[in-house]
Fold these 4 entries.
Entry 1:
Amino acid sequence: MLQNVLNTTYFHNKNHARIINFSAAKAVNDFDNKLGQIADEISKANNICLMAHKDPDCDAGASVLAVLDMIKKRHPGKQVDIYINGNMPKSLKKFEDVKKIIHLNNDKFDKEKIKEYDLAIALDSQRLDLLSESGAAIFNNAARTIKIDHHPKPNKGFANIELIDSTAKSTTQILIKLADKMNISIEKNLAKLLFSGIVSDSSGFSNLSTNSAKTFEACARLAKTGINTGEIYADVINHMTRPMFEYYRKILNNVHFTKDGRIVSIQESRDFLKNLPQKIKDDAVGRSKVLMEIGTTILLNIEGVKVSMRAMPTKDDIGAKIILRGNGIPVNRVAQYFNGGGHPIMAGCEIENKTIPNAVKKVINYIQTQKLLDKQV
Ligand SMILES: [Mn+2]
């Protein structure tokens, strides 16, 4: 029956895709149309700027470098600038193009001198403000704007074309489809970048859920280019400096369980931070990586644990930043209550509370009073 309908509409309409009133097919078509529009916008633009969320993780950083690589391959003549607010992750520093990054500094930013781009592309950034103040100003000054992301779609959009696939584990996973649309054959350099993003955002394949087949298929394609997947994995996930190991040793003493053992938190309190060696204090990215590793690969896997939480002072030092991981518990509901957001299995929020233990208590209290531990994702 469906086949008949498709055939009939196909013969009567050139663009039969529009006629199919079948939501899954429509979603696939929408996605594919947007990929085509993005490839078009890129080919039309002469000056393009690429950006990612501030303090980029490996997925954000690799996405920007990957799109640059793709544009260089497909349209060698184009002028492409990259803007980043914060440091690129260590594992990406060996890529040649890292040298081309223009580092944004909000304090030294002159709004009068913003370059006008034909096209701005924001990668791995759920919201405009994540581009940082100066990044957002440059983005908004471009004639056309694109967002490519795998975080859930927020209520408000911020770009002319928004390509969002929240079933993708990383933004780099989505970029494989863009490469195909742009007729680019993925070779080693590009594959390394795309694979790095997937490894990083999946915490080394440890937080995959129902869409893992898609992720592994994407990885298989990248692995076929001959990249050394083990080496990239070690670079992205396992690499730890000696000072960071010392931090690891110390922070393990700040792990707290609730009485029933179902919620566990690791707390980087202000007092604890004060007494750290300067070298460790200065490496915020390294510390957050260690916290993530302990929070996800160790604490979340302890028998009986349903929610793992990591808490640290906010950047502006007025509150606590809380990142939640759920073991079958929809932690985004918790984060949303505190004006944060994220995925059911991983979410984050900021709480105005000077003491980290008190902020953690607030979150635990909410989880317990809402009886969220008995709900499943
Ligand atoms: Mn990402």
Entry 2:
Amino acid sequence: MTSPVKVYGPPMSTAVSRVLACLIEKDVDFQVIPVNMSKGEHKKPEFLKMQPFGQVPAFQDDKISLFESRAICRYICEKYADKGNRGLYGTSPLAKASIDQWLEAEAQSFNPPSSALVFQLAFAPRMKLKQDPGVIKQNEEKLAKVLDVYEERLGDSQFLAGDEFSLADLSHLPNSNYLLSVTDRGALFTSRKNVGRWWDEISSRDSWKKVVEMQKSP
Ligand SMILES: N[C@@H](CCC(=O)N[C@@H](CS)C(=O)NCC(=O)O)C(=O)O
């Protein structure tokens, strides 16, 4: 029997939850290893051996360790190609390239404004930090422009990379979930017909619902 892969970090972290959603889609056994970030455990030498930038998640599968949530997800899909959702990272060069294209769009265009908004609107109040209205306005405008592109794309195709749910859609779940469920900026998504329909579909997957449940436990 193979031992479960290990994910280091709290499920409430967006990057950790991306990896958890992927593991659940792929039906791969995993263990979440707590990292006490308020005590700075992610900056300790032991942790830096796995994640040299001192961020979560870190990931271990047998003797190998990896960091960067999107790279970890690609690895899981390739290594466990025959398990769970087999089409999650495509099954042909073109399908993979199309998924990579939208994964890049998520990482380069969607993530910067959406993670800034998640920090300002969801985490800063919890951490008793002052919000910056200028940063909020600027990132809201940037995200709106990105979502205009998505609206167009999702008018032509059911999901970002084609007609099947893929890693590209999954990668958007963590930040979108905070924006829709914790902040009052959900209209950025729901006011756009195709984006709203897409959000309803991707967020109602069992894999994501399980991650949201994991985020509720302390
Ligand atoms: N690009 C990285 C981002 C990781 C990241 O930003 N992690 C945050 C939590 S979501 C973190 O560890 N923040 C603490 C810090 O930077 O000190 C990934 O996708 O894995």
Entry 3:
Amino acid sequence: MDSSGKASTAQLVVLATSSALTALFYSIYRSRATTVARLKEAKKVSIDHELKNILSETPGRCVPYAVIEGVVRSVKETLTSQFVDNCKGVIERLTLKEEKMVWNRTTHLWNSTEKVIHQRTNTVPFSLGSHDDDIAVAVRVIRPLDAAELDLETTYENFHPTVQSLSNVIGHFISGERPKGIQETEEMLRLGDSVTGVGELVLDNNLIKIQPPKQGFQYFLTRLDYDALLRKQDNSVRLWRILTVIFGVAACSTLIFILWKRYAHHRQSKRERSMLEEFKEQQKKRMRELNLEESSVSPTSCTVCLSRERSCVFLECGHVCACGSCYDALPEPKKCPICRATIDRVVPLYNS
Ligand SMILES: [Zn+2]
Ligand SMILES: [Zn+2]
């Protein structure tokens, strides 16, 4: 804050950043809260013999947002794990990640970083069936890769370290990058896994399908059960709410601080103006007492005695308003007759 009462650039930057972050976090919080509210209102549907009848009687043969819990069943073919025997599934994701150490020039430390260099996801059509094997009803899952929270099970992991030779090591110190190796992962959604699906449930030509819901609703496919999914989403809402509150408080306090400084400055300059007016008023009264005309007083004459020339500077305020004798006659503690600031030092003026 400078003496003009205006906010400094740093304060404006803090105010702008904290306001922008508050707005951003609030919008994320709002959308997460809406997701949770819709998730709570979603219709719970169980996979049983009645399902087809219920859907055919529903308008549009569709439940716009439904929750189903079932086990993964293959429709025709299945995918087999490339690494584990007798491991069959319907989604298989292979990932190759390069891990390396990168030299940070600021902290002077080697930081570990990783980068996905290859990823491939295979899927085959699958459906969710009842936990009860006797019930043949199944719900076909459409576009499973569009779902949020699609957590696959890691079926295989292997790390292939990079072979290090002496010349390599020297090269790495020069380049600032040291490869550690390649992490190979296989993840799968296996047959028989329990899955919760939340989406649009439709009866389409005798086939029951769950598919991505309309705009604004989120498609979930997760190995968590419905309650755990709800808890997880609730926790994320809480996190964004806390962040919104923290940054909102920071933005408000900065704004209050800036406004308060402006107000204090305004009050101070108003007080100075009124003191100056008061002083001029007193001076006029004194001139009348001494029977002096305003025009007969030199503009450089001492403002106290109105006769001798002004001959000293008061510090720190810097006013040149009095002669030496009047300064000496000021009562202790000496204060500037114009602005009432305490006089720390007085410097004589020499006119030549
Ligand atoms: Zn004087
Ligand atoms: Zn002064």
Entry 4:
Amino acid sequence: MTTSAPSKNYADDVSLLVVTLDTNPFFWSSFPFHFSEFLSQVLAFLNSILLLGQLNQVVVIATGCNSCSYVYDSASDKNHASTNGTMPAIYSNLLHNLDEFVAKDQQLTTPHHKPGTIPSSLLSGALSMALCYIQRAFRSGPMHPQPRILCLQGSTDGPEQYVAIMNAIFSAQRSVVPVDSCFIGSNNSAFLQQASYITGGIYYRPPQMEGLFQYLSTVFATDLHSREFLRLPKSLGVDFRASCFCHKQTIDMGYVCSVCLSIFCEHHDKCSTCSSVFGQTQSEAASEENRKRKAC
Ligand SMILES: [Zn+2]
Ligand SMILES: [Zn+2]
């Protein structure tokens, strides 16, 4: 009796690429390269991923300053129907959703950011959404595509998001989801350097924006299997600095709670996260309290 050949395990070669796209208007208005030029190169890159394999899937999450949203999913039926004949459905749907998103995100803008500074984008939210989507793919059955996340980021890090971003990074590491980072801003992003380093992804800062498509297609279009055979950019030094939990500021040195590993920039008697008392055990503190009372 012949058993039917096992169906091809396509999960090895098929990519699920979740892209987070920085739409922070404050960043783009201060950046010499125009958002529309950036977007046209990114769209060409997304198209090339879909062309590399018909089972490949691309999901785009827009990252604004106040919110994030799914703007494109190549698996959605809507994106297969051609809409107006002048543009492929991928572009018109994505651009339409992106327009709506940017308008909605702008309405949420709170005026209390410091003038002269550029507010950061909500990277923590975008990473969480990407991981939620990937978890859904994992649960859809044993034949899921190989997921990876690509952060297209330009805004500076928001130290207030430190805890949420680190949690997302460790969650990605546990699920073996590499986080690739294409950082286009002027200074490196410590968060994304750490994200790519911890999850085994690639961190790369293109030296010039004109050739962005080249960099995207040669560095980030490679699937996880091919990466073993390629010489991809290695990260040259990672900024491992953390943010304190008390003031959400990036610090070089600080105090760490030995119980919950919360980080503080100055000495506290009690941990604000887990309420551990520092320097003495709680029973010692209680007996000292009693002694003081007796002395009075
Ligand atoms: Zn602090
Ligand atoms: Zn603690």
